[in-house]
Amino acid sequence: MSEHRLDRIVIERPRGGWRASLKKVPGNRRHLKEITEAACTDGIFNPYLLKLKRKSKYFSDCLGPLSRWLRSKVGQDWDDIYHELCQILDITTLSGKHILSHVWGYVERDVVLVDGIVCHRRYGRQLGSGREELYVHPETRILCLANKIRKLPRKKPDDFLKIDDYHHYRKIDGIWYFFELADMEELEVTKYYSRVKTWKYTASKRQCNKKQIKFITEQLSKS
After folding, report:
1. Taking the model in full, what pTM does it have?
2. Helix (H) or strand (E) holding 199
3. Do the Cβ atoms of 88 and 1 come closer than 8 Å?
């Protein structure tokens, strides 16, 4: 990918949506026209007109090249990266500002180190908890990659064993019980429709014997 074409590559994909004539736009007609003329001057909306929200053209930017370009800069000084980016893009134009807004979606700048862990300053969450994230190191100003945090599998509870949708064992205050459930139907009637809602309730509850406890212990040890 040519770095010099980054500004065109990101926005060159055809935009989606429906066309709507400005003649049919009530209210902010003059304001929309001014924005459209400014956008056409920058060349990113031509030959489209700016449209209404629900009958509009919208950006369907090709962001893959931008993401790959930023990842290729990992390990470099962020100030140098930003300077290079400003040379590629004209951030005084609407198109340049639009692409720059996507950059801030990829690169997190407001971070702090908490016991060596990179966290978002405002929200306090650890970076990489949802996806791989780029961030600017708060001390070195180096662009870094926060790898996605591996989520440990949830440990199965040691006080519950499900047999099926209507039978299970549960440990309460150190004592195992066997529960049997049953359906309870309720007719729900509204203005437009009626339906039967099915709930479950405990039909019976019995304390487990030694044989059942042995079975429970064996099953829990396998999980």
Report:
1. 0.47
2. strand 194-207
3. no
